[in-house]
Write a structure and sequence with these properties.
homodimer, mainly alpha, Arc Repressor Mutant, subunit A, 2 domains, elongated, disordered N terminus, DNA-binding
Amino acid sequence: MTMVSVDKGGSRSDRTKAAILTAARARFAAHGYERTTIRGVAEDARIDPSMVMRYYGNKAQLFDAALAIDLRMPDLSNVSADDLPRTLVRHFLTRWEGDPADDALLVLTRSAVTNEHAAARMHDVFATQVAPALAAAVGPEVAARSAGLVSAQLLGLALTRYLLRLPAVTALTPDQIERSLAPAIAATLKPT
Amino acid sequence: MTMVSVDKGGSRSDRTKAAILTAARARFAAHGYERTTIRGVAEDARIDPSMVMRYYGNKAQLFDAALAIDLRMPDLSNVSADDLPRTLVRHFLTRWEGDPADDALLVLTRSAVTNEHAAARMHDVFATQVAPALAAAVGPEVAARSAGLVSAQLLGLALTRYLLRLPAVTALTPDQIERSLAPAIAATLKPT
DNA sequence: GTCTATAATTCGATAGAC
DNA sequence: GTCTATCGAATTATAGAC
């Protein structure tokens, strides 16, 4: 798990910093902001808790650093309107099925539900990454009208399948989800 | 705020218990399980923190009591398949627009994202209240196949509009949501 | 650059006076 | 039935030795 990212060229402190960040991201994803402790992060990173303070100042700043993440949204500008829903559902399913415990968007979502700061970050991510990616595919007008509810549907999947693990949703195969959710997203993209 | 609900007939202790429960529900809804403190609940209820312990034993049991709630799902057995999606969306929109900060399902969702116990409760609520109500309308087979994703879409709305308050979703009117989300739910109910 | 020791808070929970 | 006082545990954060 948790590819530590980066950097054979890094100094020892760089590697320590990266290890802390990886551990923090995993803990924030698994338990949310309140329940992750600096001690726990330090333990996962195999270093002393005081190192976390040294490099990141305090828990809030560590959280910020852990959330400074690129969602790696796919380029949707060459996807036809017909293919868009399926492409979207597939993209997120692939991401989340792979390593749900470490996905940036799931980390953010879990914490944003009970943490104002994380919620503000979520707003940023949506405005600067999700909405533009959608607008590239369907145009600014349709995106302005439907990006919110399309996101609601995708985050609804994230919520029920990966955060709450509702049996009725975890029981479905990725294929079943794709066949059922893609037409739904297509419906909200259609003009009313 | 926080109408203390109830009960002229109640003894003084009954009124105190009810006041505690109301305050607890509001706090759990606003901040989730971890961040609500017994001290805070007691302050809202205008009583001493030790009263909370006296009546509810501990924080976990207080949480349980706060979540022992009937979702008041509507009777869907006489709703036609065509009307079902719109009926569902309307039902939940009406509930949530009224008093989002005190709605049982939102309380539960906010806490369930970071609390195992609340998540287990959520599974219960889904299995005993949501799924049967759906099955009454569309039959057990369709319900078994689609109840999970229908719930995902409704909870996605709850998540983005009331918990995260994403501007792209809060900007929509209830009518716009109904017109856009009802066809989406209809699409996931259709056989693939 | 890493660790020990500890200060300062916060909170859940208990004991007991009135 | 309500409140005062306080314990014990957990946690963030700091100071400083090595």
